[in-house]
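Quick log. Single chain, no ligands specified.
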Amino acid sequence: MVVASSEPPPATALTREITVAQKQKDCTVLIVGAGPVGMINALGLARAGVDVIVIETHPGIVPDPRAMTYHWTVHEGMERLGLLDDMLTEGFKVPEMCYRIFATGEVIRLDIGAIGDYTPYPYAISLGQDQLEALVFKHMADYPNVRIHWNTTMTELVQDAHGVTVTAERNGQPVTYRADWVIGADGGRSRVRKAIGVEFPGMTWSQRFIATNVVYDFEKYGWSVVNYLVDPEYGAVVAKVTRSGIWRVTFSEDASGTLEGIEDRIRAFYARVFPGPEPYELKLYSVYNMHQRCAEKLRVGRVMLAGDAAHLTNPTNGFGLVSGMLDSQVLYEALAAVVKGVVDADVLDQYSRDRRRAFEEIASPSSVETKRLVFHSDDPERFKADLERMRRVASEPELLRQQLMIGHRMQTPSLVRPAGAA
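-> predicted structure:
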């Protein structure tokens, strides 16, 4: 079962002066961060028979508006973990991506079914990140070799030739963990990444995103379940999150401005872009800065990075969490094979190279281009060319397949399974 208690471990494990030689191993793999990336790694390792502890600063799953649409290329890996059916039961299929031109009302639809001859998963899935975390958490309960310690914040990390010692704080008390390996899945401000001295080069956008959850009947007006509203002033991503009718409306604003009056600005934005006068219910909103960054390496000794701890992108086309999920689908099986002595630990260096390349060559530039089109289409000539290209993509099957395969190129091969193996 998953242990979610906030009770501290025995007093001997709280003694900071304890030496590495005296400290018994608490687990084979310690994962810092219980977001979806940390949990997917934990579940995969647990299923492989590896003893895992996950530590997380928050007291439980965070309900804030975050990622929600999952590209078809992750579905095979989620099915391998036994998660795909639950994702489809809790969420729903997204059959098309829809571009809506705010100024003219033109609608351009990209049918994901165009890749039906390539994959058994010709659809995206819409599912709130908190819902995904809850599903993974439920599956983890089937494995007694994985535990989660909530309310636990890492403060120090030291590794040696035999393992890693992590010091954390829980309820004001120091806690010490000893593990053979550590995965840092603790987000963009990763303490793990900083502790192993890995730089995080890149840039921060001058705009910030405002992600809102709202109850409103967009489908009544013919809107698809995922829509890119294209406009330099009223650009937005509008997508259905839950079967119950909660939608995500995300728009951007200048990051240098004050947060005061943010709810008034949300309602003013709604007044301009909502297609009809029906009442709505604003449920939640979250304001966050955007980055394009990638860690210089994803492995240092016995410590690996995954997800936002390894790379950050603006989330316009949903490649942030998807990249982290693809990291995880490669990492957990490679690390499990290393733990069992099936492969040499050098395979983890290949993980670092492959996942950095996929992010820097595919995920990041594609996300930048989609952000430009949706939110910054203020060059008339370039916008005209963009529209002509999108119309051709929508109408020509081969161009559409090429467009839909962009996300697939973020996937990197298994480092331990033969090509084509299940």
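Confidence is low (pLDDT under 50) at residues 1-22.
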